[in-house]
Amino acid sequence: MALSGIQIYKMLPQTNCKECGFPTCLAFSMKLAAKQVELDDCPYVTEESKEQLAESSAPPIRLVTLAGPDRETAAGNEVVLFRHEKKFFNRPGVFVRVVDTEDTAAITEKVAAASAYTVDYVGIDLNLDGIAVEGASGDPAAFAAAVGAAREATGLPFMLVSDDPAVMEAGWKAVEGEKPLLMGANSSNWEAMVDLAKQAEAPLGVVGETLEELAELTQKIQEAGVEDMVLQPAPTAMGASLAMQTQIRRLALKNFRPLGYPTVAFASDSGDPAKEATLAAHAICKYAGFVVVDSFAPEFVYPILVLRENIYTDPQKPIQVLPAVYEINDPKPSDPVLVTTNFSITYFSVANEVEGSGLPAWLVVTDAEGMSVLTAWAAGKFDAEVIAKAVKEFGVGDKVEKKVIVLPGHTAVLSGELEEELPGWDVKVGPREAVDLPGYLKTVLA
């Protein structure tokens, strides 16, 4: 049973050292009881207390990891209902489904394309996370062949889907030694599925129509020796799915251990790509740990992966690029120097516009702690001193002859101060929006 804040406080050193970020040990213990901090944040807690506090310090949602030959994907370890309370830790794994009733050549082709898919999004590589192989035929040999065909085409983790223990056993043995998710334990087959999960040392997917059924099953399965589980709330209608996914997360965060596991959502049964995309987006937002889709095409998966990135980016830590001087379109010493901050969206907006214009330029990216230009300027993180320091640190003066530097239009007020910080430089004020940079470079700086 989870401990209260007062019980936890009695096991802490009670020094009020403030090194954990809280003014008192009591405040820290209350946060620990609410799963809003980690026990390791206290530098002086004893090993004996750590053992006693293990349950209270453990995340309310168990971490479950799936592994293939080339990659792993994990879900769980979440501690909040809304990301602004702290952050979400593990992005939902997006799996593409194939079915053993399909031709093996078609399976191989689809899996290979999904496995190879990657796209750069503001400096982040977006990829799919795994393959779900479904044993719809009911034939163990056909399922094993489909799993084998999929494995030949990818090293991604697998999710094996079947409620028939004989079929599941054949599929698992086709990838023996890996750690797939065995998806298909229910109230009628759970004992046989537990035996398979123990043999495979793999997580077990548990299907239930109601919260009560899921909780009862997980307790039985845990008592039988399987700790790693993934829950599949059976309702597929959006409203019912939303209700169950939210209830599972809420109860887990209240330390109801029978539901303290990541969940999986199948958007793959909709039969309509538009509806499928909607269901997948819904599952990513509320609160699936794994999402299975049927369709694979760049125009289908890209918006889903971008949505996932936006939801699961730490709201307290903006996406950043490395402060440096970037060369765009092979600039020469006579070409101008542009300045911006290291907020990824700001950087890529500027860089993409200049690159697309074909015009060469040097782009100095300052360390603004991931803030946009106006936000950084208002916070004192983007001023004349910061810009001059970056120009000198990156040796920009040694790279150019003309020494023309262009400020973002919204920070025109810095031009006079920058002239004092960089004597000998011609300080220009550029446009306010990145989209206007090509025209500015062609006309004003021509």
Task: Explain what the structure shows.
The chain is α/β, with parallel strands linked by helices. It has three domains: 5-57, Electron transport complex subunit B, putative Fe-S cluster (3-methyladenine DNA Glycosylase II, Chain A, domain 3); 64-312, TIM Barrel (Alpha-Beta Barrel), CATH 3.20.20.20; 324-443, 3-Layer(aba) Sandwich (Rossmann fold), CATH 3.40.50.11600. The chain has helices at 5-11, 25-33, 47-52, 54-57, 104-116, 140-153, 165-173, 190-200, 211-223, 238-253, 273-285, 298-312, 344-357, 373-378, 384-393, 415-421, 437-443; strands spanning 64-67, 72-75, 93-99, 118-121, 124-127, 130-134, 158-161, 181-185, 204-208, 229-233, 264-266, 290-293, 324-328, 337-341, 361-366, 404-407, 426-429. An eight-stranded parallel β-sheet has the order 10-9-8-7-6-3-12-11. A five-stranded mixed β-sheet has the order 13-15-14-16-17, sandwiched between helices. A two-stranded antiparallel sheet has the order 1-2. Helix 15 (384-393) crosses helix 16 (415-421). It is globular, with a radius of gyration of 27 Å.
Features:
17 helices, 8-stranded parallel beta sheet, alpha/beta, 3-methyladenine DNA Glycosylase II, Chain A, domain 3, Rossmann fold, TIM Barrel, 5-stranded mixed beta sheet, 446 residues, 17 strands
